[in-house]
């Protein structure tokens, strides 16, 4: 599905990503874990076209998309839930969801997807006329995910979906991620909550200061001593 | 009482013009956080295009209005493409200085082509010259045209911004550019469209002021531009209804100050209002900060 080869990204003189390579197979949940500032968000932003790489290749279904616009990548099936949700605060929940389907013209299918999103997140249906900025953090996360699903993505990027949420909500969000994946959407998940992420991941990458230092199945990494020490709290 | 009503009616006419200009300032600020100083010169060009259509081409008011709006749209979009777009990733001050440069450029090119002299719009004739006497209050046909045109354009604008695809894109880009890109919105097209809308309204304001005050000149945009900017800040910069309210408020205040006080003070009062707004409610009348929840 998605293949990233030797990605280099610079912010001015800062070399933020140093030859990052990763592969996401069709139908998998792949997670990218690492500390704050390791380059997780930058990796996602580069793959979805918000940041230009200085070097490297991004392939989606074998097609080179390295030099396409963010807009085209949405069209090709990438959807990105950014860090901090980034819902449109002074628009209603419904308007936010409609913007998720911005590039689509198939009205009937959009209506169907809207229904699906409401089934997945019933709270959004109750609040559809409310301004997004008035929702709680967890509800905003759900809205951001619902909005991203409205483009009917092949692959969904989730950037720190559990950040700042109450533990009960965190569990719920991860259940929903599994749920979304089970309907056929491939997922690339960035998380600081390594334990939760590894539990649901088919495959995982560990990033440290801009380089991938380790990779393996979720289970393998859970059992690795290094990972236990560095990310799982003993 | 009659005199007050008369002044308010005059103020509404002037306010309509400020409101139309203020909308352009506020929309462009909303989307790229730029005070587009060249905006007031697009308004001036609108007045000149209207003048040309009415005197040289002998067109009526409505076709002249439409031509002025279309040409101003082209000018506005061109300014954005040529002057601001290459600076998209520069500092805000660089773009601001560029805006001032563009403004001066347009003013003096117009002066070079059309001459620095004041020109007079043709006198209104026939039905356009009518006066209505409503129990001692005098309403001119021009005032009705100004108000009517403004209302139609504002309704149209509200419809575009609230209901259309590109309008939703405009709101999304003004709220969060990155998030808008992730929705698949083309940010550059959306910014161009915003300039187009604002410039069309400024063009309309230009021709309306021409038929109202009759005289136009290449530097006519400066003061009304600044006052419309005050109107936009008063209503809350970046907020469309705020610019409409602000425009009418400033227009009415200005006329009342000239009517009851001293017309020498009218500009001073407008800027005193700006200072007061900035001290008391910097976000403007309708501005509020929705605090982000984590």
Please provide a written account of the structure:
The complex is a heterodimer of chains A (about 230) and B (about 290). Chain A has about 230 residues and is of the alpha/beta class. Helix content of chain A is about 40%, strand content about 25%. The model of chain A has no long low-confidence stretch (mean pLDDT about 95). Chain B has about 290 residues and is mainly alpha-helical. Chain B has one domain. Chain B has a two-stranded antiparallel ribbon. A two-stranded antiparallel sheet of chain B has the order 2-3. In chain B, helix 1 runs antiparallel to helix 8 and helix 1 packs across helix 9. The C terminus of chain B is likely disordered. The chains are: A alpha/beta (about 230), B mainly alpha (about 290). Chains A and B meet through helix 2, helix 3 and helix 6 of A and helix 6 and helix 7 of B.
Structural class of chain B: mainly alpha
User: What's the total helix number of chain A?
Assistant: 10
Helix content of chain A: 25-40%
Strand content of chain A: 25-35%
Q: H/E element string of chain B?
A: HHHHEEEHHHHEHHH
Brief synopsis:
The complex is a heterodimer of chains A (234) and B (294). Chain A is of the alpha/beta class and 234 residues long. In chain A, a hairpin with a 2-residue loop joins β4 and β5.
Task: Jot down its keywords.
heterodimer; A: 234 residues; alpha/beta; six-stranded mixed sheet; four-stranded antiparallel sheet; 10 helices; 10 strands; 38% helix; B: 294 residues; mainly alpha; two-stranded antiparallel sheet; two-stranded antiparallel ribbon; disordered C terminus
Topology (elements, then pairings):
The complex is a heterodimer of chains A (234) and B (294).
Chain A: E1 2-11, E2 14-24, E3 29-34, H1 40-47, E4 55-60, E5 63-64, H2 70-75, E6 78-81, H3 93-100, H4 107-120, H5 122-126, H6 137-149, E7 155-159, H7 167-182, E8 186-191, H8 194-200, E9 203-208, E10 211-217, H9 218-223, H10 225-231
Parallel strand pairs in A: 3-8, 3-9, 6-7, 7-8
Antiparallel strand pairs in A: 1-2, 1-4, 4-5, 9-10
Helix pairs in contact in A: 3-6
Chain B: H1 2-32, H2 39-55, H3 61-84, H4 92-114, E1 119-120, E2 131-134, E3 137-140, H5 141-163, H6 165-175, H7 177-182, H8 187-213, E4 215-216, H9 222-235, H10 240-260, H11 266-280
Antiparallel strand pairs in B: 1-4, 2-3
Helix pairs in contact in B: 1-5, 1-8, 1-9, 1-10, 2-3, 2-4, 2-8, 2-9, 3-8, 5-6, 5-8, 6-8, 9-10, 9-11, 10-11
